[in-house]
Amino acid sequence: MDNNTETTPIACALTGEAQRSETKRFRTELVPHILERELLVNGAKFVFSNTDSAKQSVERLVSIDMGCCTFLNHEVETFDDTIVLTVTSEGEGIALAQQFLNELEHSNGRC
C-alpha cells in the first residue's frame, strides 16, 4: 500500500460522465457480492464473497482507481471464502476514500 497523498493532488482524473459510469458499473458488479462493509478512520473496508466475478470486478476497480485517483491507497487480500478490499487515504483524501462506502449504502437503499 502506497502513502502517496503528500505529493499527489486530491483529484480524480476521470471526467464527470466517466466517473458516474464507473460508479454505476462498480455498484452493479460488486454490490451483489458484498458481505460486510466498515467505515475506517482513514477510509473504508469491504468484504466480498470470493467468486470469479467479484475478483475480476475488484481487480478492475483497483486498476481504474490507481490510474485516476492516485491519492487513494488500495489493499486487496484474498482468502478462501472472501476478498477484502481496503481503500484508505490521508488528509483531505480520507473523505473520498470513505465515499465508496456511502455510495454503496445508497445503492442498497440504506440511505
Describe the protein's architecture and organization.
This protein is α+β, with helices and mostly antiparallel strands. It is built from 3 helices and 4 strands. Helix 1 runs antiparallel to helix 2. The protein is globular, with a radius of gyration of 13 Å. Mean pLDDT is 81; it is low at 1-5.
Task: Summarize it.
The protein is an alpha+beta fold and 111 residues long.
What is the element layout, followed by pairings?
Layout: H1 16-30, E1 34-40, E2 43-49, H2 52-68, E3 73-78, E4 82-88, H3 93-107
Antiparallel strand pairs: 1-2, 2-4, 3-4
Helix pairs in contact: 1-2
Rg, Cα atoms, Å = 13 Å
CATH class: Alpha Beta
SSE string, helices as H and strands as E: HEEHEEH
Share in β-strands = 15-25%
Q: Helix coverage percent of residues?
A: 40-55%
CATH fold field value: Gyrase A, domain 2
Second-tier CATH architecture: 2-Layer Sandwich
Spans of at least 5 consecutive residues with low confidence: 1-5
Query: Which structural class best describes the helix and strand composition?
Result: alpha+beta
How would you characterize the largest beta sheet?
Answer: 4 strands, antiparallel
Strand numbers in spatial order across the main sheet: 1-2-4-3
> What is the number of E strands?
4
What overall geometry do the principal axes of the alpha carbons give?
Answer: globular
When the domains are counted, the total is 1
